[in-house]
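Work through what follows:
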Amino acid sequence: MTEQTTATASPATSGSAGGTALAAPVVTTALTTTPTTALTSAPAPPRPTPTPDTFTFTSPPAAHRTPLPARSAAQVRLAPLWTATAVAVTVLTAFFVLIVSGRVVTEGPVVAVLTRTHGIHLGDLFALGLWCAATGALLVNALVTTAAVRGARR
């Protein structure tokens, strides 16, 4: 919208007396609207030029992580061997405890007296000898196999 101002001479002052004195102008204000066809705005910023994607995934520095030691096929084969050896020794120990603590008629004579009602019988020594032989055989087998597998690697 624009504002227009016009000044005109008043008829009372232009006079009948024939004078041409100018009087104070009368100011009239009229608001007019001018049709606008387009809104003017600030110039658009230039478009950014596309840049190539330079992101690549990299692992964290080696100082922040400790790598797991690589397990060879030989080490993978040794794990079940030692697990089976541990289970077998546990079962043999449980059977040994059951045999020694039980009351068997054929235990034999008392070799050593522990209390008034308990002692070590000849049969207990036989069971202890068998337990030592079986447990020793299992452990020797596991140790020899482990040494053989590790020696074959080198």
About this structure: The mean pLDDT is 75. Residues 40 and 46 are 18 Å apart (CA to CA). Strands lie at 2-8, 26-32, 110-113, 119-121.
